[in-house]
Amino acid sequence: MFISTEEYLHRITHALEHVIAPLIESDYGRGQLLAAVFLLDQLTDRIDYKAELIQQEIETGCETIRKIVDAIEERGGEAPGDLKAFLGETDRESCAQDLAFRSRCDEMLCSAIDSFYANRKKFDPASAHAVEGLILGHLTQIASRDLGMFKPSTSQKLLQSRGESS
Predict the structure, then answer these.
(1) Helix axes 99-118, 51-74, angle to 10 degrees
(2) Virtual CA dihedral for 157, 158, 164, 166, nearest 10 degrees?
(3) Which residue ranges make up each domain of the chain?
(4) What is the pLDDT along the chain (166 residues), one digit of tens a residue?
(5) What phi and psi values does residue 2 have, to the nearest 5 degrees?
(6) What are phi and psi of 105, to 5 degrees?
């Protein structure tokens, strides 16, 4: 499940402030740690999300959810009501396409996947394989994009610079 950058930073600062800081005996060390917590808290306000990327994630997520729900219902299965309501909500033009909605989309995708596996016995092997391929393809696309957003690690940079100097 996707964890927003804000939540990720919040968890780090919470652990530093409430778990690590009390263990530090030196006032100076504790002060330095709390200064780092303060700086991390300030990063949350500076995060800039690309609206196009969020929109793309919502569109592909909703498309995948819709295909899973359609496949379940074509085979006489019943998709959960909250999934159907969510898909109805996405059809409305007034639907907000923001980070909160993307998080809901991720939750609904998890629910759709769970629903597929709960109804899997109603699928013939080829159809089940096709839906699993759809799910894995979507998850691979998300993971590949996320990995592509990471900066190269220091060790990768060192290895690359070592190879370039030879």
Answers:
(1) 20
(2) -170
(3) 5-44, 51-149
(4) 456 677 778 888 888 888 998 989 888 888 888 888 888 887 766 666 677 778 888 889 999 999 999 999 999 988 899 998 998 888 776 666 777 888 889 999 999 999 999 999 999 999 999 999 999 999 988 887 766 655 566 656 666 776 665 5
(5) -70, 135
(6) -60, -40
